[in-house]
Design a protein that fits this description.
The complex is a heterodimer. Chain A has helices spanning 26-37, 39-48, 54-65, 75-81, 85-103, 128-137, 153-166, 185-193, and strands spanning 121-122, 179-180. By secondary structure, chain A is mainly alpha-helical. Chain A folds into 2 domains: 2-65, no CATH class; 75-193, Orthogonal Bundle (Cytochrome Bc1 Complex, Chain D, domain 2), CATH 1.10.760.10. In chain A, helix 5 (85-103) crosses helix 7 and helix 6 (128-137) packs across helix 7. Chain B is mainly alpha-helical. Chain B is 63% helix and 2% strand. Classes of the chains: A mainly alpha, B mainly alpha.
Chain lengths: 194, 742
């Protein structure tokens, strides 16, 4: 190659290995300098100026996500929400992350663990507000874990309604456990008040 | 003139060890790849499960395969570059046999679950001590050879070897500081945030100074030798050597973006990683441009083919590394297979192919056969290996990006699109099968190299010749020429001409001291503030030490290698708090020795698992995870339900933790065993009330009870803090914290 003639060959020789002393490629020097200089604006933007830190941005992102529904944990609210699929969607994912491990993703229950939530048989529940109580505090001495530190107030109400909604479409699953609750007392109340 | 001959016997030994351990390490890699695609391959055996074998794979390929390759390269090239036989044949052999013994010790202890659980620093303290001893033997032998050299100036390859020896010593001693409890168990000298920082300062620089600098040294000798061309640029060597050595050390915290480390540390890690891009590419350029004018040779010589692909993969992964260290990219890639793909582009492409290139070049020379047994088999290895690398990394890149996107995908109403973690795992299984195929091809290539090596060895002469070399000893004082500068130069011009560096090159002590300073000073800029600044870890009043039973359970968690698949660190990101709960705080980890944040979520994060699941669920799940989560790829742990817990050992553990500053109450200090037994009885009572079939089975004595107690504790202390505060303020618990979304 003719270009080699121009290469400045040094008098170095190590076990036959020689060395040129070619200049550094311009783009290499440019990018190296750029990567050093970048530190200044980056640090100013993220560490000196306010509002750009990881936690600041996270708070902002979460604010956009937080909608307080201020739901009250009474039977009428749960009963109404039971037929509000749009609101129930809000906790459907939480059911998967928190409840499905024992009740299966479709709520049909798991041997020796969670009962079938889609039938009309209940172990510790006689009313819709009982669902909320069990969700909040768990059932001591059983595998049912308190969800008070996993769900907020709104979510506890919504999850109660979600669980109640499952029995509107009974599915074959684990054999019935507990006692049959053919109709919720709250349903009778709401009919009575009409 | 002095007469001497080189010691090639030691190079033959290290080369053979490279080949043998390479096959072993890659075979274990293939096995664990299979276990992810097909969990039945865990066999329900303790010593065969993924969590214990994954560290065996990483240690074997790093320290046994790459390690022996480095030593082969150092012993072959240093003798020739310094024109001297190794300082001491006895030390050479001690180094060789000592290192192999360490590897055997690792291969026995890691499957037994004897581990410190710090990635690439898993080996327990007695083996650590042996490593330090053998490293000192290596250093004495190497620097002794420099001292009796007959070549005045040190070549760039030697610079990289010096940096390797110094930096590995500093890193290894720094990260492995631990207090022994028994012969096979120790607790890290650091806890939580500081432990994580030290680990990734080490972990990242193990890549730098075990898988990069020595391989650059290797490249600088074997590549120009094979190409028979001068190195492209001496001044580029100088610049990229010093910038690499100084900048690499800072980059470790990029392994901990968005975790509980302070953000300034994260920023340092990212910015220095970006600065590292060009110094790394300096090495690539000097490698590839040395081949200018020799490309016709590349077409014929498989050795050069290996180098071209190896150096190209070096360039690729040193571009990808800085890219992955950018925080917002890392937000997607961290905890996914993207990191695994990145590592394997470097390991299979750069380390593997540079090693094979070197071995093929050495075979006819070491065995004095004049040629390889089979040129064709060598070329076949090259192609099958290259296809193997691509079949490995492309599916695993895809897997990483797929899973990262699935984790963060949100519905329009702000809820998780894939709320069942398992969905994000089952999606990857076809890609895991593709990796098994890629890995098989790569291993097949390595087997071809082994065959070629064996057959070439069989062609050896009945006695190896030992050519006698003649060279003059160095005079006491250097009287040779100093580089002259033509024309007029200002101070900057003189500096840029780098004549000063030529002076350093004939002063090995100065050179070594400067290298040490570069490595140590850069480290101290990060280490000192991380330990000294109080606000790095804000205390949380409700975070208390683990109970004695939980300590025993935690040690089982460590021993089984759970951290290989489960993180314990929730990042402050909307989708993470939706999935896992409140993000992790530095103050939660002050009693974590060692930290268990993990680096990959093959399973879900466990930082807040304590409030989520119950005793009987955990016990059943350990017995056979797929019973409770159909499609789960977690191994079964039936032995945890059968093996008795060693309660008596708990007191020693607590004593050690007290020595390290854990504030235990007197009752625990005096009789940790009784405290542990009482808690085990309570956990067992809970288990039996939930699941009567466990009644009378003596489960309170089993390992699973301790491990379950630990898991039920995980991440719960902070909610006690919220409860305490809300009790004081009279406000509802749910209004505090980010885990609560809606």
């Amino acid at each position: 190659m003719s270009k080699d003639v121009d290469d400045p060959l040094l008098d170095h020789n190590y076990d036959g290995i020689q060395e040129y002393d070619n200049p550094l490629p311009g783009w290499w020097k440019l990018l190296f300098w750029a990567s050093i200089v970048l530190c200044v604006p980056y640090t100013i933007y993220y560490h000196v100026m306010d509002g750009h830190s990881i936690l600041d941005r996270f708070e902002l992102d979460m604010k956009a996500n937080v909608v307080s529904l201020n739901l009250t944990a009474d039977g009428a609210t749960i009963l109404a929400l039971r037929n509000d699929p749009e609101k129930l969607e809000l906790v459907k994912g939480k059911f998967q992350t928190l409840c499905a491990a024992c009740h299966r993703p479709d709520g049909t229950g798991m041997p020796a663990l969670g009962p079938n939530l889609t039938d009309k048989y209940w172990k510790n529940v006689k009313s819709l507000t009982d669902i909320h109580r069990v969700l909040t505090n768990g059932v001591p001495g059983t595998a049912m874990v308190a969800q008070v530190s996993n769900l907020n107030k709104d979510e506890l109400v919504l999850m109660s309604a979600y669980v109640a909604s499952l029995s509107l479409n009974p599915k074959a699953g684990k054999e019935p456990e507990g006692e049959e609750v053919p109709a919720w007392p709250e349903e009778a109340q709401s009919k009575g008040s009409e | 003139m002095e007469s001497f001959c080189y010691d090639d016997g030691i190079v033959r030994k290290f080369s053979l060890a490279t080949m043998v351990w390479g096959l072993v390490g890659m075979l274990v890699g293939l096995l664990i790849a299979l276990q992810l695609a097909w969990p039945q391959a865990n066999m329900g055996l303790p010593w065969f499960s993924f969590g214990r074998l994954r560290p065996l794979h990483t240690n074997a390929v790093i320290f046994a395969f790459a390690g022996n390759a480095i030593f082969a390269a150092v012993y072959y090239s240093s003798q020739r570059l310094l024109k001297a036989r190794m300082f001491s044949d006895a030390l050479s052999n001690l180094h060789f046999w000592g290192w192999q013994l360490i590897i055997v010790a690792a291969a026995i202890t890691l499957p037994l679950g004897i581990t410190q659980s710090k990635e690439y620093a898993e080996l327990e303290w007695p083996i650590d001590l042996a490593v330090v001893l053998i490293w000192v033997v290596f250093a004495v032998n190497f620097f002794g050879t420099i001292a009796k050299r007959r070549e005045r100036h040190l070549y760039v390859g030697i610079w990289f070897y010096i940096a390797t020896i110094i930096a590995v010593a500093v890193l290894y001693l720094g990260n492995n500081a631990a207090l022994p409890v028994t012969l096979f168990k120790s607790y890290s000298a650091y806890a939580g945030v500081q432990d994580a920082f030290m680990q990734w300062w080490y972990g990242h620089n193990a890549v730098a100074f075990f898988l990069t600098t020595p391989f650059l040294g290797l490249m600088y000798y074997f590549l120009p030798k094979a190409a028979e061309r001068p190195v492209y640029s001496y001044r580029l060597s100088i610049l990229h050597f010093w910038s690499l050595v100084f900048i690499y050390i800072w980059a470790g915290p990029h392994h901990l973006h968005y975790t509980s480390i302070p953000e300034w540390l994260s920023t340092l890690g990212m910015l220095f990683s970006l600065m590292l891009w060009m110094p790394s590419w300096g090495g690539m350029l000097n490698g590839l441009l040395t081949l200018r004018g020799a490309w016709n040779k590349v077409a014929e010589d498989p050795v050069l083919k290996f180098y071209v692909v190896g150096v190209t993969f070096y360039g690729m992964s040193t571009f990808e590394g800085p890219m992955l260290s950018i925080k917002s990219v890392n937000a997607l890639s961290h905890y996914t297979d993207w990191t695994i793909a990145h590592v394997h582009a470097g390991a299979l492409g750069w380390n593997g192919f540079m090693t094979f290139g070197m071995l093929y070049w050495l075979m006819p020379r070491l065995f004095q056969t004049g040629k390889l047994w089979s040129h064709r088999l060598c070329v076949t290895h090259f192609w099958i290996g290259t296809v193997g690398i691509l079949l490995y990394i492309v599916p695993i890149w895809t897997a990483g990006i797929t899973q990262g996107l699935m984790w963060r995908a949100l519905n329009e109403n702000g809820t998780l699109m894939y709320s069942d973690f398992l969905d994000t795992v089952t999606k990857l299984r076809p890609l895991y099968w593709a990796r098994v195929i890629g890995g098989t091809l790569y291993l097949a290539g390595a087997a071809m190299a082994a065959i070629n090596m064996f057959q070439t060895w069989r062609m050896r002469p009945s006695r190896y010749e030992e050519p006698v070399i003649q060279a003059a000893a160095l005079e006491k004082v250097y009287t040779g020429p100093s580089p002259k500068l033509s024309g007029n130069h200002g101070p900057i011009g003189r500096f840029a001409a780098m004549a000063w560096h030529r002076t350093w090159e004939r002063k090995p002590i100065t050179f070594t001291v400067m290298t040490t300073l570069a490595v140590v000073s850069a480290s101290m800029f990060e280490i000192i503030p991380t330990f000294a600044i109080k606000s790095v870890v804000e205390p949380i009043a409700s975070v208390k030490p683990y109970t004695p039973l939980e300590v025993a359970g935690r040690d089982i968690y460590v021993s089984e290698g759970c951290y290989n698949c489960h993180s314990q660190q929730i990042r402050p990101m909307r989708h993470e708090v939706l999935r896992y709960g409140e993000y992790s705080k530095a103050g939660e980890f002050i009693y974590d020795r060692p930290f268990q944040w993990g680096s990959r979520r093959i399973g879900p994060d466990l930082a807040r698992v304590g409030n989520k699941l119950t005793t009987s669920w955990h016990v059943r799940h350990f017995n056979r995870p797929s019973d409770l989560s159909p499609g789960s790829i977690m191994p079964s742990y039936p032995w945890l339900l059968k093996d008795d817990l060693d309660f008596e050992a708990i007191q020693g553990k607590i004593n050690a933790l007290v020595k390290l500053g854990t504030p235990y109450e007197d009752a625990v200090k005096q009789d940790a065993v009784s405290v542990a037994r009482a808690q085990a009885d309570a956990v067992n009572a809970k288990l039996v009330s939930e699941a009567p079939e466990f009644a009378g089975k003596g489960m309170q004595n089993k390992k699973v009870i301790a491990l379950t107690a630990y898991l039920l504790r995980l991440g719960t202390d902070i909610s006690k803090d919220v409860e305490d505060k809300s009790a004081q303020n009279g406000s509802g618990a749910q209004e505090v914290g980010h885990g609560q979304s809606l």
